[in-house]
Write a structure and sequence with these properties.
The complex is a heterodimer of chains A (865) and B (111). Chain A has 865 residues and is an alpha+beta fold. Chain A is built from 30 helices and 23 strands. In chain A, the strands form three sheets. In chain A, strands 1, 2, 3, 4, 5, 6, 7, 8, 9, 10 and 11 form an eleven-stranded mixed sheet that branches. In chain A, strands 14, 15, 16, 17, 18, 19, 20 and 21 form an eight-stranded mixed sheet that branches. In chain A, strands 13-22-12-23 form a four-stranded antiparallel sheet. In chain A, α4 crosses α15 (372-408) and α13 (325-357) packs parallel to α16 (423-449). Chain A is elongated. Chain B is of the alpha+beta class and 111 residues long. Helix content of chain B is 59%, strand content 14%. Chain B has four helices and three strands, in the order αβααββα. Chain B has helices at residues 8-23, 29-39, 48-61, 84-108; strands spanning 27-28, 64-70, 76-82. A three-stranded antiparallel sheet of chain B has the order 1-3-2. In chain B, a hairpin with a 5-residue loop joins β2 (64-70) and β3. The longest helix of chain B is centred in the C-terminal third of the chain and has 25 residues, at 84-108. The chains are: A alpha+beta (865), B alpha+beta (111). Chain A binds chain B through residues 2-3, 6, 9, 13, 16-18, 20-21, 23-25, 27-28, 39-43, 45-46, 49-50, 52-54, 57, 364, 366-369, 371, 373, 453-457, 459, and chain B through 1-3, 6, 8-9, 11-12, 15, 28-30, 34, 47-50, 52-53, 56-57, 59-62, 66, 68, 71, 73, 75-78, 85, 89, 92-93, 95-96, 99.
């Protein structure tokens, strides 16, 4: 250790040492000082040479080592290229994935003291966030109860709205409470924030707009203030512009409008965002508000069953945004880390192999005066240069991959679209490169330290395969874990895709569009358009059945109701044990999607002309609203003022309406398109959302073309999106597909790396033992036995790796299990498949070295002696 | 095998001489030069200008330690002492020099 801290002598000391030498020489020779000086030579030059020993050495040797490394790479380009490519792949994939997931895992919300911002509400099913009913909010949260500092709500976080002046464009408008910005603690960039006055019914409609919109339409944010914007035919006064960096807590709205919450008694659901007082935990906050909520359920005559499921939950706003994405993200990050580790181990093995080949060179260097420290430095310089080159190349790999990820990633992975190679990611990428440089340099450097100075007449290459075999085993173990994970995920994806959704998706094509209020002023006009289109579509060639609906399965968000009334029962009796979906459909809906009717009847065309409003319940809705009772014949209505009663006429099977892995949610169907004004109002503003579905006997392509044409004939300006239901069903399994794809790709690469690693070590083993094999053969061993010995040895390491890898997978079972569906960690098919693939590939990789061992000619091998 | 045509070789030779001299006891630079002169019976004369950089290289590599001391003549001098690493190093180079020596003798047909 001492040598690392050896003090560098000062210039003064160097001079004094030389002076002392000269004085001693003069004294010894009896001559004078100038004679001693003459004999010595150039004192200044010597002084300089001594100085250089201490100072310039570091950079000089670094440059020398770098040059020597470069020369050796040029001489062995295959090694250098392989090592750099493998490592850059590992680094590139890690960097890309890190930058894709960074925003999910490590960034906080862009609001001051965001840790105190929470989402409060009754958890929604599936992907739907927690919400609170408008009535409960107005009763209990004005003002925000302790321990909350403040609270605000969003009625919706962005719906399509149209600018009805030149130039027209479609925007996203959110309805929010006036205090949204102040609760989030953000200021407007220009103009003013909403005031409490703006939120009052009857006040002039004012808006806050996004910065990009103000630039686009008015050139500058200040220009926008005081302008009016015609939204859906209504003039709206722009009072403020949001800052360019402002992010909505949910959605991506261009325009914020005051929500103007109504007096209680509505079933509308709100997203509630609150700010906790400092130092209050979520649990404390939850237990503090629970009594008031329970009491409210009692005063509102909610059934105890509802009060139980209707408990408010307090979670961080970030959690609400991200959902369960962090779990998947950590899983992927762990997988990519393993992959990088495998790449590093592989390169280490390559370096060790090369080190063995270079032992003579090192020995010569050592004989010629290179210290061991110097040689170890050479090895580390090489690995660091390797990592630097790989890191550079890795960035190119990363930026390419990132584009692929962003394009491939499911929309349900939040914020992934914003991922980029920003400075933060670059820092992480450099850190990864340096770390892997050190990781791959450690073993070669240690091997160098063991180098012996050459002596005697013969160069002996020490065969020290233990370390390399350990590394290969480690690599196989990591690969097994990865491969096992990949096969489990693929099997689980298979299960996921096989889940019956409750409706037939083949041969169904959908058209969706949003009508602008400006061109279709009233709900009646909107419904009339839909009727026209439906009429055309149901008469298209090959059409079997067609329907219009407020939301098309499987992912269309249908309305979610908080409460429902039953005739002759007290209002708000809480007949809904859980949130229920409401879908408005035309009569042929059940036929189009082939949803089976279990009792009663489906809607008929006659129903649309009748003054009576019918309703159909799913089996689970019937069970929730009328447990143990006969549902058909009963009358229900959503808890809203002026709602008509709907008579239950039929019961249908449930469908998977909130994702594949989620239990089906209770659903109520009302009839869409009854031509009365009251019925149109009953569409609750949903009449503008066009969702047409048609079941055809013709090919989907023909259906798509026809639908596009039919819509264009009616309204050439209307933007429509046309997709087959199968495409939409696939979107449900986007995330598992994405994860399974990535892990399978990692596992495939890892397997290739493990195979090359094993091949390298086996070849090395055979080369190192040529003499040994020659002797055995001379003594009568058959080539077959020699080959078998090599295979058996490799086999033992494969088996060791397989056992270790299985254990490794077992330790990460909890993370993995969260990503599985329909199978467990112990799924024997997956593991058998893993071991089969592994053994086949790895055994193939050692066949060549084994064959070479069998071909050793004892005469030649022994003559080399 | 020892490479003979490398420029490093003269340095290695000097290093060997320095370490060998110090093996018989600590000494300052002048003492080392003097002793090499004497023990080689005047056959080898150390270039004093290269002796000191070589000494410092050995020092930096940890083969020798250095310390300022007062000599018998009452003069301040930097005295070098062989370290454990230096002893090991000496053995190594002695061996490779022996190999070189033997090789060269064989080539010259002196055996």
């Amino acid at each position: 250790m001492k040598r690392w801290f050896r003090r560098r002598p000062s210039d003064l000391e160097l001079r004094e040492e030389l002076e002392s030498h000269l004085a001693m020489r003069a004294e010894h020779d009896g001559g004078d000082a100038s004679a001693a000086r003459r004999r010595f030579g150039n004192v200044l030059q010597t002084h300089e040479a001594m100085r250089r020993v201490w100072i310039a050495a570091f950079w000089e040797t670094l440059a020398q080592d770098a040059a020597s490394t470069w020369r050796s790479w040029r001489r062995h380009p295959a090694f250098a290229l392989t090592a750099i490519l493998v490592l850059s792949l590992g680094l590139g994939v890690s960097t890309a994935l890190f930058s894709a997931l960074d925003r999910i895992l490590f960034r906080s919300l862009p609001y001051p003291h965001a840790d105190r911002l929470v989402s409060v509400g009754v958890p929604g099913p599936g992907s739907i966030g927690a919400s609170i009913s408008e009535a409960a909010y107005l009763d209990l949260w004005r003002p925000a109860p302790p321990p909350f500092e403040s609270a605000t709500t969003l009625l919706n976080s962005g719906k399509a709205c149209d600018v009805t002046e030149e130039p027209p464009e479609r925007l996203s408008c959110a309805l929010v409470e006036a205090n949204l910005l102040s609760v989030l603690d953000r200021a407007v960039a220009a103009g003013r924030d909403f005031s409490a006055e703006d939120d009052r019914p009857g006040a002039p409609v004012v808006a806050l707009i996004r910065h990009s919109l103000s630039i686009r339409r008015f050139g500058a944010d200040l220009n926008a203030i005081g302008q009016t914007l015609n939204l859906d035919g209504h003039p709206v006064l722009i009072v403020g512009v949001l800052s360019p960096h402002f992010e909505m807590p949910e959605g991506n709205a261009d325009v914020l409008l005051p929500a103007r919450l109504r007096a209680p008694d509505t079933g509308r659901l709100l997203m509630l965002i609150a700010r906790l007082k400092p130092g209050v935990t979520f649990t404390q906050a939850e237990s503090a508000i629970q009594p008031a909520m329970s009491a409210w359920y009692v005063t509102r005559h909610f059934a105890p069953a509802f009060a139980k499921t209707g408990e408010l939950q307090v979670r961080s706003l970030l959690d609400r945004q991200l959902g369960d994405a962090p779990r998947a993200a950590w899983f992927l990050l762990g997988a990519v880390g393993t992959f990088l580790l495998i790449a590093c181990v592989n390169v280490t093995n390559l370096m060790l192999a090369r080190h063995t080949a270079r032992q003579r060179e090192f020995a010569v260097r050592a004989s010629l005066g290179a210290g061991k420290g110097r040689l170890a430095r050479l090895a580390i310089t090489e690995s660091v240069l390797l990592a630097a080159a790989a890191g550079g190349l890795g960035l190119i790999v990363a930026s390419t991959l990132l584009k692929v990820f962003v394009a491939m990633a499911p929309a349900s992975i939040p914020r992934i679209a914003q991922a980029s190679l920003d400075p933060r990611v670059l820092v992480v990428a450099s850190a990864l490169a340096v770390m892997s440089g050190l990781l791959i340099g450690v073993w070669p450097a240690m091997a160098v330290l063991r180098t012996d100075v050459l002596h005697g007449s013969r160069a002996t290459v020490a065969v020290r395969p233990r370390l390399r075999f350990m590394l290969v085993t480690a690599q196989i173990a990591l690969t097994v874990a990865m491969l096992g994970g990949a096969s489990l995920l693929l099997r689980s994806l298979w299960n996921l895709v096989g889940v019956p959704l409750g409706f037939a998706s083949a041969h169904v094509t959908t058209l969706s569009a949003t009508l602008s209020d400006a061109r279709y002023h009233t709900p009646e006009q909107q419904l009339a358009f839909q009727e026209d289109l439906l009429n055309r579509v149901s008469h298209m060639p090959g059409a079997v059945a067609a329907a219009a609906t407020s939301a098309s399965p499987p992912i269309g968000i249908s309305m979610i109701m908080g409460a429902i009334d039953v005739e002759n029962q007290p209002s708000n009796s809480g007949r809904l044990g859980k949130a229920t979906r409401l879908r408005l459909v035309t009569p042929q809906y059940f036929e189009t999607f082939q949803i089976p009717l279990t009792s009663g009847r489906a809607f008929s065309e006659a129903d649309r002309r009748s003054s009576e409003s019918p309703a159909i319940l799913t089996e689970s809705a019937a069970q929730v609203i009328f447990p143990g009772e006969r549902a058909i014949g009963q009358r229900i209505r959503p808890t809203e003022p002026n709602e008509p009663w709907h008579e239950v006429v039929g019961i249908v099977k449930d469908i998977h309406n909130s994702g594949v892995t989620q239990e089906p949610q209770p659903e109520i169907y009302f009839l869409r398109g009854r031509p009365s004004a009251a019925a149109a109002r009953a569409e609750r503003g949903a009449a503008r959302f066009v969702n047409l579905a048609v079941r055809t006997t013709v090919s989907p392509d023909t259906a798509v073309t026809f639908l596009r044409q039919a819509a264009a004939e009616l309204d050439p300006q209307l933007p429509v999106s046309i997709r087959t239901i199968e495409q939409q069903v696939n979107r449900l399994t986007e995330r598992p597909r994405f994860i399974a794809f990535l892990i399978a790709a990692f596992a495939g690469f890892a397997l290739v790396l493990a195979a090359t690693g094993l091949y390298g070590v086996a070849s090395f083993l055979v080369t190192g033992r040529t003499r040994d094999i020659g002797v055995r053969m001379a003594l009568g061993a058959t080539p077959r036995r020699i080959a078998a010995r090599v295979l058996a040895e490799a086999g033992s390491w494969i088996a060791g790796g397989a056992v270790l890898g299985t254990l490794l997978a077992w330790t990460s079972r909890r993370v993995l299990a969260a990503q599985l569906f329909g199978i467990t960690m112990n799924d024997s098919t997956s593991w058998l498949g893993t071991f089969a693939i592994l053994s086949v590939v790895l055994v193939i990789s050692v066949l060549r070295p084994a064959a070479r061992a069998a071909r050793v000619d004892p005469l030649i091998a022994l003559r080399e002696e | 095998m020892v490479a003979v045509n490398r420029p490093e070789n003269p340095q290695a030779a000097l290093e060997l001489l320095i370490l060998k001299t110090l093996a018989s006891g600590p000494s300052h630079g002048f003492g080392i030069a003097l002793r090499i002169d004497q023990t080689s019976s005047g056959l080898l004369r150390v270039e004093e200008g290269s002796l000191y950089p070589a000494l410092h290289r050995c020092h930096k590599a940890g083969f020798v330690d250095a310390e300022w001391q007062i000599t018998a003549n009452g003069r301040r001098a930097r005295v070098y002492r062989l370290t454990k690493d230096g002893r090991k190093r000496l053995k190594d180079i002695e061996r490779s020099w022996a190999a070189l020596n033997e090789g060269v003798r064989k080539v010259l047909g002196w055996t």
